[in-house]
C-alpha cells in the first residue's frame, strides 16, 4: 500500500515534465515557422500613384503594384455596354459590372489569373483577348470579359479589383 | 558493456582494431560483399545502383555550382550566366547538373517500372516501396525548387503556377501560399528559401535512400520470376558478380549521359528559361520539365481548380497503397497473362500523358489527357484489384535454379508440370 502513492507522484512528475517539454518544443518551433511569413518590409510595400491622363479610350496600361501587374483600362462605350448586358446570376462568380468599377469608363484590375497566377493576355492591341473580348490567360485557357469577370476556362474567380481611389480626374492611387 | 560478444576476425589487424570498436567492416561485408542476389536478375536490377550514383553526382555538382551562384532576384540569372561563361568548367558543372536531373528521373522511372512489372512492391517489401515513393516525391520537390534558381521566365512562371496550386485548398489555401512564398507573389524571399531547401533536400533523400537499401537487404532483392531464394544455388554474391554487372551498366549510362552533356546539353531545356524572369509577362506556353509533364497533364485535364490539384497529388499518393490494391500473390507479370498487358498499357499511358502535358491543353490533346487520366486511376482502382481476383496465373517455377533447368530442356522441365526436373536435381547435388 505504501508503494501506490509513490507511483502516483512519479506519474504526475513524468506527465508534467513531458507536457512542459512538448509545450516548450512547440513554442520553440513557432518563431521558425513565423519567420517564413512575409517580413515587415514586404508588408509595408506601399501604394502607387498613376497618371492616367495619357490613356486613350480603348487603351490599357500595365503598372506594377506590390510586385504584381495592375491593368488600368479606359473602356469604350461598346465594352461598357457588353459588360452591363450580362446577368450576374449567370456567372461563375456573380458580380455586376457596377460593383467592379468606380467610374464606368475606368476598369482597374490585378492582372493575375485567379487559376494559377499567370498574367492574362489582352493588354496589347495584337494580343488574343479571348471569346468575351476582355482577357485571355494563355496558361490554361481562362477567358475574361470586358469587366474582368471569368466566363470560360478553369479559373474559379473574377480578376481582383485592387483598392484604389481617384485623387483627381487624372490620377489614381492604388493601394 | 558486453565483452563477450562475438567479434568477426579479419586477417588485417587494422580492420580488427576498427571492427572491435565499431562493427562497420562486418556490416559492409554482409551487406555489400556476401549479400546474396538472385542469380536470374537482369539489367533492370542495376537501376537502383545507377540512381544512387546519379544522386551522388547531383550532390557533388550542386555543391560546386552553389559556390558560384547568388540567390537574389537581381543577380541569380547573371550569376548562372557567369557560371556558363567565366567560371572554369562552370558550363560542365551546370550541364552535368541540369541533364543529370533529367537522367535521374529516367533512371528512377525505369526503376519504378521494374518494381511494378515484377511486383517488387508486394509482401514482404511493401515498406521498401513506400520509402521509394517518398524518395520520388522528394525528388519532384527538389527538382521543382532547383528549376526556380536560374530565375529565367520558365523558372519564375513555373514557380508561380506550382505555388498557386496550394491556393486551391479551401480556407487556408491563400494563407498557406503566402507563407510558402514569404511574399504575396514569387519574389526574393521565395528565391532565397527555395535555394536553402534545394540544398538540403538531397541530403534528406540520401538518408531515405539508406533506409530504402537497408530495407531491401532484409528480405533480399526480388527477381524477374518473383520467387524467393530457396537455396544457395539460387543466388550469387553481390561481390564481385553484381558489382561488376552494375559497373557495366554504369559505363553504358556514362556513355549515354555524356553524349547529351557534350553534344546536346540543351535538348531537354526550355528556350524561354534563357530569358530573365519578368513578373509582368507570362510566356505563351508554360511547360513543365518533361519528367513532371504526366502529372501536369492530369492537372490540366480537370476543368476545376481544386479538383485538378487533388487529382494531380492523388496520382502520386495512390502509389503508396498499390501493395494493398493488388491482391494477387504472384509477383512477376511474366506469370500474369492478363495483368501483364494492363501493366504495359499503364506505362504507355503514362508516356502519352507526359506527351500531351507538354502541349497546349486544347481540343484533341485535352481529350487524350482526359482518357489518359481515366486509365491512370482506373488502372489502380478497378483493373488492379479486379484482375488480381479473376486472373489465373501461370504456374511458377519451383525455384530460381529451376528457371534455368527449364531453359536448357524445355520439354522435360519440371516448372510447367510442377515436378522437379532432372536438371534441377543435378543442381541440388552440387
In words, what does this structure look like?
- The complex is a heterodimer of chains A (175) and B (430).
- By secondary structure, chain A is α+β, with helices and mostly antiparallel strands.
- Chain A contains three helices and nine strands.
- Chain A has a three-stranded antiparallel β-sheet with strand order 1-9-8, with no helix packed on it. Chain A has a three-stranded antiparallel β-sheet with strand order 2-3-4, with no helix packed on it. A three-stranded antiparallel β-sheet of chain A has the order 5-6-7, with no helix packed on it.
- The mean pLDDT of chain A is 88.
- Chain B is 63% helix and 1% strand.
- Chain B contains 17 helices and two strands.
- A two-stranded antiparallel ribbon of chain B has the order 1-2.
- Chain B is globular, with a radius of gyration of 25 Å.
- The two termini of chain B are 44 Å apart.
- Mean pLDDT of chain B is 91; it is low at 410-430.
- At the A-B interface, loops of A face helix 7, helix 8 and helix 12 of B.
List keywords for this structure.
heterodimer; A: 175 residues; alpha+beta; Rieske Iron-sulfur Protein; 2 domains; 3-stranded antiparallel β-sheet; 3 helices; 9 strands; 26% helix; 23% strand; elongated; B: 430 residues; mainly alpha; two-stranded antiparallel sheet; 63% helix; 1% strand
Q: Could you write a compact summary of the structure shown?
A:
The complex is a heterodimer of chains A (175) and B (430). Chain A is of the alpha+beta class and 175 residues long.
| Structural class by SSE content of chain A | alpha+beta
Helix content of chain A: 25-40%
Q: What share of residues are in beta strands of chain B?
A: under 5%
Mean pLDDT of chain B: 91
The H/E string of chain A reads HHEEEHEEEEEE
Integer count of domains of chain A: 2
CATH topology of the largest domain in chain A: Rieske Iron-sulfur Protein
Overall CATH architecture of the largest domain in chain A? 3-layer Sandwich
Largest interface: A-B, 29 and 35 residues
- State the CATH superfamily name of the largest domain in chain A: Rieske [2Fe-2S] iron-sulphur domain
Amino acid at each position: 500500500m505504501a508503494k501506490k502513492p509513490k507511483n502516483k507522484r512519479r506519474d504526475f512528475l513524468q506527465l508534467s515534465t513531458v507536457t512542459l517539454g512538448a509545450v516548450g518544443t512547440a513554442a520553440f518551433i513557432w518563431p521558425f515557422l513565423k519567420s517564413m511569413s512575409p517580413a515587415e518590409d514586404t508588408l509595408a510595400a506601399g501604394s502607387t500613384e498613376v497618371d492616367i491622363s495619357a490613356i486613350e479610350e480603348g487603351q490599357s496600361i500595365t503598372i506594377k503594384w506590390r510586385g504584381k501587374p495592375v491593368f488600368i483600362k479606359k473602356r469604350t462605350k461598346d465594352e461598357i455596354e457588353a459588360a452591363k448586358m450580362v446577368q450576374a446570376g449567370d456567372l461563375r462568380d456573380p458580380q455586376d459590372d457596377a460593383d467592379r468599377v468606380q467610374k464606368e469608363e475606368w476598369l482597374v484590375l490585378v492582372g493575375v489569373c485567379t487559376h494559377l497566377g499567370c498574367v492574362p493576355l489582352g493588354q496589347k492591341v495584337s494580343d488574343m483577348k479571348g471569346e468575351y473580348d476582355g482577357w485571355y490567360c494563355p496558361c490554361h485557357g481562362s477567358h475574361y470579359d470586358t469587366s474582368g469577370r471569368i466566363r470560360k476556362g478553369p479559373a474559379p474567380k473574377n480578376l481582383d479589383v485592387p483598392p484604389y481611389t481617384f485623387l483627381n480626374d487624372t490620377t489614381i492611387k492604388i493601394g | 558493456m558486453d565483452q563477450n560478444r562475438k567479434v568477426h576476425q579479419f586477417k588485417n589487424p587494422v580492420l580488427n582494431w576498427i571492427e572491435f570498436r565499431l562493427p562497420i567492416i562486418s556490416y559492409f561485408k554482409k551487406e555489400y560483399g556476401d549479400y546474396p542476389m538472385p542469380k536470374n536478375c537482369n539489367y533492370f536490377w542495376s537501376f537502383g545502383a545507377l540512381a544512387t550514383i546519379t544522386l551522388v553526382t547531383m550532390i557533388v555538382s550542386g555543391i560546386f555550382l552553389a559556390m558560384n551562384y547568388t540567390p537574389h532576384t537581381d543577380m541569380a540569372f547573371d550569376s548562372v550566366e557567369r557560371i556558363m561563361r567565366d567560371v572554369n568548367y562552370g558550363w560542365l558543372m551546370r550541364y552535368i547538373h541540369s541533364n543529370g536531373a533529367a537522367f535521374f528521373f529516367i533512371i528512377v522511372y525505369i526503376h519504378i517500372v521494374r518494381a511494378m512489372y515484377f511486383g517488387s512492391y508486394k509482401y514482404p517489401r511493401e515498406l521498401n516501396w513506400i520509402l521509394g515513393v517518398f524518395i520520388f516525391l522528394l525528388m519532384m520537390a527538389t527538382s521543382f525548387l532547383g528549376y526556380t534558381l536560374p530565375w529565367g521566365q520558365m523558372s519564375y512562371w513555373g514557380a508561380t503556377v506550382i505555388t498557386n496550386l496550394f491556393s486551391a485548398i479551401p480556407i487556408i489555401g491563400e494563407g498557406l501560399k503566402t507563407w510558402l512564398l514569404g511574399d504575396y507573389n514569387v519574389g526574393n524571399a521565395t528565391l532565397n528559401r527555395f535555394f536553402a531547401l534545394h540544398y538540403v533536400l538531397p541530403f534528406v533523400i540520401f538518408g531515405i535512400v539508406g533506409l530504402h537499401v537497408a530495407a531491401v537487404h532484409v528480405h533480399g532483392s526480388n527477381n524477374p520470376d518473383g520467387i524467393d531464394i530457396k537455396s544457395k544455388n539460387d543466388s550469387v554474391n553481390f561481390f564481385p558478380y553484381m558489382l561488376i554487372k552494375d559497373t557495366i551498366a554504369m559505363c553504358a549510362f556514362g556513355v549515354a549521359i555524356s553524349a547529351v552533356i557534350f553534344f546536346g546539353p540543351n535538348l531537354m531545356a526550355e528556350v524561354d528559361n534563357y530569358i530573365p524572369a519578368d513578373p509582368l509577362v507570362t510566356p505563351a506556353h508554360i511547360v513543365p520539365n518533361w519528367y513532371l509533364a504526366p502529372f501536369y497533364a492530369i492537372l490540366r485535364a480537370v476543368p476545376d481548380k481544386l479538383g485538378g490539384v487533388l487529382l494531380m497529388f492523388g496520382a502520386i499518393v495512390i502509389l503508396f497503397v498499390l501493395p494493398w490494391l493488388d491482391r494477387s500473390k504472384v509477383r512477376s507479370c511474366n506469370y500474369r497473362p492478363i495483368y501483364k498487358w494492363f501493366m504495359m498499357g499503364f506505362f504507355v499511358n503514362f508516356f502519352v500523358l507526359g506527351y500531351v502535358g507538354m502541349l497546349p491543353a486544347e481540343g484533341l490533346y485535352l481529350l487524350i489527357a482526359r482518357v489518359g487520366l481515366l486509365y491512370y486511376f482506373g488502372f489502380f482502382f478497378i483493373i488492379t484489384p479486379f484482375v488480381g481476383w479473376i486472373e489465373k496465373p501461370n504456374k511458377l517455377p519451383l525455384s530460381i535454379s529451376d528457371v534455368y533447368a527449364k531453359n536448357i530442356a524445355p520439354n522435360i522441365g519440371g516448372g510447367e508440370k510442377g515436378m522437379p526436373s532432372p536438371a534441377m536435381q543435378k543442381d541440388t547435388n552440387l
